[in-house]
Design goal:
Number of domains: 2
Radius of gyration: 24 Å
Shape: flat
Strand order of the largest sheet: 4-5-1-6
Keywords: Membrane, Transmembrane, Transmembrane helix
Helix content: 40-55%
Number of strands: 8
Order of helices and strands: EEEHHEEHEEHHE
Largest sheet: 4 strands, antiparallel
Structural class: alpha+beta
Distance between the termini: 5 Å
């Protein structure tokens, strides 16, 4: 069985209905945990981590509101619709930075993340991970977060080829037509899209191309 330096757990979808969670905190292994209702399910955390999660939940609407205000201000400024005072820009940007840094400081590494129907738990203390694996046959130790691709590799390969061909055609058309200026930006954009799709077609060990594909080996 693979044993990563900092254990990460992958709970397959078929294991979730019969999951037997140890009564210890996922974050520290402490007894008497606080059970948090999260999007991926109900999981145990120590009191400090639970408080951090709750603070992050409370600040999320504020952070989104500040980000929206800053975005609107910069949009108005760029559109030339109005001149926004520098002090307002500074206040909004500072508020966004402070809120973002505060939220980052409250992050809990082992919060569950849904991955193609499975649940991934990162950086679980080794004794806690051992209990989860022992109590739940089918729970896996993995070295990194799995990635689920929506389409099969040939879709991404075909897309990469088409984008790269389009990039070459754009360069030829612009060069023959003597076009200059921002139109040339289309070529690198198409190349970047092609390279991205090509990368997504690579069957790395942590990648599954459909929800039902084979999971990482134990």
């Amino acid at each position: 069985m693979y044993a990563p330096r900092v254990p990460n757990l992958l709970i397959p979808a078929e294991v979730l209905p019969r999951l037997d969670m140890p009564p210890v905190a996922l974050s520290t292994g402490a007894a008497d945990p606080v059970w948090l209702d999260l999007p991926a399910g109900r999981f145990p955390y120590d009191h400090r981590a639970a408080a951090a999660v709750r603070r992050a939940r409370r600040t999320r609407p504020v952070l989104l509101a500040v980000a929206a205000v800053v975005f609107v201000l910069y949009t108005i400024q760029l559109a030339g619709a109005a001149e926004i005072p520098a002090g307002v820009h500074l206040f909004g940007s500072a508020g966004l930075c402070v809120a973002g840094l505060a939220r980052l400081s409250w992050q809990v590494p082992s919060l569950p993340v849904g991955v193609g129907g499975d649940v991934y738990l990162a950086a679980v203390p080794e004794p806690v991970a051992a209990q989860w694996v022992a109590r739940n046959p089918g729970v896996l130790l993995v070295d990194r977060r799995p990635v689920v691709r929506r389409f099969r590799p040939r879709f991404y390969t075909a897309g990469a080829v088409l984008f790269l061909i389009a990039a070459v055609q754009v360069v030829i058309v612009l060069a023959v037509g003597g076009v200059s200026g921002s139109a040339w930006l289309a070529a690198p954009a198409l190349v970047a899209a092609g390279v991205t799709l090509g990368y997504r077609s690579v069957p790395f060990g942590h990648v599954r191309f459909t929800t039902g594909s084979q999971r990482p080996a134990r």
